[in-house]
Amino acid sequence: RKKITAALVGNPNSGKTTIFNNVTGGRQHVGNYPGVTVEKKEGYKNLGDKEFAIIDLPGTYSLTAYSQEEVVTRNFIVNDKPDVVIDILDASNLERNLYLTVQLLELEHPLLLALNMVDVAEDLGVKINDSKLSQCLNGTPVVRTIGVRNEGTDAMLLAAAEASGNKQSNGFKLDYGNDVEEAIKKLEPLLITLHNEIKFPVRWLALKLLENDANIKKSLIKLSSSDSVVNECDKIRIDLSHKLGEDVELFVAGQRYQFVGKVYQQIADVRDAHAITTS
Ligand code: GDP
Ligand code: K
Ligand code: MG
Question: What is the pLDDT of residues 115-166, one digit of tens each?
C-alpha cells in the first residue's frame, strides 16, 4: 500500500477531531509533542490501495508565535513534512476560518481545503461556491464534508492523496503592497543562505521577521552565522514600520483580513435575512 501522511489543521471547533475519530475509528495513537503539553494524536485508515496516517493537529486561528498550538502546528508542517495538509474549515463561519488558510498557503505545502459543516451553513442560508473558492486561491483543491455524519470523508482522503502530488507550490502570493514587498525583497537574499538550516520558505521567513516573530528570531540567533542578518532584519523592519505608520504585524494582519474579506464576498451567496426560516 502507498503510505500517505495527512495533517488535519483548522480553527478550534471546525470539526477536526470529529473527522479524525470518524475516519480512523479505534486505530489511534496518542502522544505529546516534545517539550510542550500539546497532545499529539495520530490515527490510521486504509482506503483502496492507500494507507493514510492522519495527524490531528491542535486547533489554531493563526500561525504566529503567541501560542504553543500555533508553533507546534507550523513546525510540524515544515519539519515533519506531512505529504499533505488538510485545512478543515467551518463553512458556517468561513470568512474567519480563511484567515488561517492564507497563512497555510504561505507555507507553500501541499494543501487541501475541506469545507466542513456545510449543513450548518445551509441552515443559516449561506451557500459557498467551492470552485470559485478554489479559483481565488490559485487552484487549491476544495472538498465538502459533514463531519458528524462522516459524509465526504473518503472523498476528502482521496483528494488529499491527489493533492499530495503537488510538490510545487501553486504560486499563491498575497500582495502586501509596495512598502512591504520592497522590504521582503531586501530580506530574501539575506535569508536564502540560512534556508538549509531553517526549513521555512524564504518569503515566509522574511514576512515573519517583519512581523517580529519571537520564535523565528530565536532560531535565527542560534545560528552562529546569522547575527548580522538578524540586526539587518531588525533595521529593515523598523524602517518599514515608520513608513507604514504602524506595527508591521498589525499591517500584515490587516492585509490578510482584507484579502480574505474580498474572497469571501466572491464565494458566499447569503440568502436575504427574511428568507431564512428558523428550525
Ligand atoms: P475541533 O475543535 O476542530 O476538533 O472540533 P470538533 O471535532 O470537536 O467539533 C466541534 C463540534 O462541531 C462538535 O460538537 C461536533 O459534533 C460538531 N461538528 C463537527 N463537524 C460537523 C458538521 O459537519 N456538521 C455539524 N452540524 N456539526 C459538526
Ligand atoms: K473542541
Ligand atoms: Mg479537536
Answer: 999 999 999 999 999 999 999 999 999 999 999 999 999 999 999 999 998 8
* CA of 17 relative to ligand 3 center, distance in Å: 4
Q: Which atom of ligand 1 is nearest to the CA of 14?
A: 3
ipTM score of complex: 0.96
Whether the Cβ atoms of residue 165 and residue 135 lie closer than 8 Å to each other: no
What does residue 26 show for φ and ψ, rounded to 5 degrees?
Answer: -85, -5
pLDDT in tens, 231-272: 999 999 999 999 999 999 999 999 999 999 999 999 999 876
* Ligand 1 contact via 16 beta carbon (within 6 Å): yes
For residue 143, count CB atoms less than 10 angstroms from its CB and return exposed for 0-12, middle for 13-18, buried for 19 or more: buried
What's the CA-to-centroid distance between 151 and ligand 1, angstroms? Answer: 13
Q: What residue's CA is closest to ligand 1, atom 24?
A: 117
